[in-house]
């Protein structure tokens, strides 16, 4: 039986700039950063409090992959992150230059705030009631 999500893949233009966004702006940890020869680099990041599900930052190589950067979810939210204090996290991330759609608002089941990553992917924070 499948019991957990281990890894999600995010196509990026530049692995180093994506790593900086997730670590310096969102405060994530680097879980892995390994090079395998000159052609392939394996980078995963995850929230500091939970390294069981990681986001792999994959450099887009083909024209098809490059066309998907910032559009992998077809205009929907790509990742939703759980928070236990949305106002505090909003203030911290906003001060680091994260571009939010709006301040946190009441949504069914809690409070939410949407923002974009460095490539325009829609991301959300959610604090349950």
Automatic annotation (TrEMBL):
The keyword Coiled coil does not apply. One of its GO terms (molecular function) is lyase activity. It holds the Pfam family Glyoxalase. Residues 4-128 form the VOC domain. The keyword Isomerase does not apply. It comes from Aureibacillus halotolerans. PROSITE patterns: VOC. Keywords: Dioxygenase, Lyase, Oxidoreductase. This is Catechol 2,3-dioxygenase-like lactoylglutathione lyase family enzyme. InterPro entries: Glyas_Bleomycin-R_OHBP_Dase (IPR029068), Glyas_Fos-R_dOase_dom (IPR004360), VOC_core (IPR037523).
